[in-house]
Amino acid sequence: GIQVEQSPPDLILQEGANSTLRCNFSDSVNNLQWFHQNPWGQLINLFYIPSGTKQNGRLSATTVATERYSLLYISSSQTTDSGVYFCAVGESSASKIIFGSGTRLSIRP
Amino acid sequence: SAVISQKPSRDICQRGTSLTIQCQVDSQVTMMFWYRQQPGQSLTLIATANQGSEATYESGFVIDKFPISRPNLTFSTLTVSNMSPEDSSIYLCSVAESSGNTIYFGEGSWLTVV
After folding, report:
1. What angle do CA A101, A5, A59 make, to 5 degrees?
2. Phi-psi bin for B99: left (phi > 0), alpha (psi -120 to 50), beta?
3. What tens digit of pLDDT does each residue of A46-59 get?
4. SS3 at position A16
5. Which residues of chain A make contact with B103, given a CB cutoff of 8 A?
6. Within 10 A of A41 (CB to CB), how many other CB atoms are there?
7. Partners of residue A43 in chain B, C-beta under 8 Å
């Protein structure tokens, strides 16, 4: 099956800093999503991005499907950005998507 | 996106008992899923809840341990049977939006088995 690796596993930054989170996957995918899990466990869908680039406020994501990686950029970090960021991939629709191990981001005031 | 409500949000359960988690969606959805997240771990798909038929379970999960019901397009339940401390996890209900590509999660049910 598809393998998903995220890096770095942990990231500690000061408020206002920028960060780049990476997701590598082992095979071709037609579905790739980024999620943020806040400290209370709630999972929020950030992007559906099987290819190309999308931006939403301070967050943006780029997926280079031919090279099998995706990047999530967070600019001007805020303490509310803290939590775990997951990349999830699948071969087709939302069924059978596989989650990476996540990047734990801590933003210090 | 759909609004997904789960109950209970949190519970402490005795070893050997069973607990049923409910998931209610504010609109009809075709695809509905149940995930488990063990402490400090990523999410693992338990099963796809199929409306009007038996759920489709992933490798490592069986119906006797995790029976699932899906009586209609807005509601599903997951039962965790004969619980042990290893079942302490967050259990999450999720749905796919109409295109079938993007998934959304409920707030999760935090179970602790003692």
Report:
1. 80
2. alpha
3. 999 999 999 999 99
4. coil
5. 33, 45, 94, 97
6. 18
7. 43, 92, 105, 108
pLDDT of residue A93: 64
Identify the pLDDT of residue A96: 78
Whether A102 and chain B come into contact, CB under 8 Å, resolves to yes
Residue A28 has pLDDT above 70, yes or no: yes
Closest by CA to A82, choosing from A49, A40, A53, is A40
- Cα separation, A44 vs A57, in Å, equals 15
Q: pLDDT for B23-71, tens place per residue?
A: 999 999 988 999 999 999 999 999 999 888 889 999 999 999 999 999 9
The three-state DSSP-derived secondary structure of chain B is: CCCEEEECCEEEECCCCCEEEEEEECCCCCCEEEEEECCCCCEEEEEEECCCCCCEECCCCCCCCCCEEEEECCEEEEEECCCCHHHCEEEEEEEECCCCCCEEECCCEEEEEC
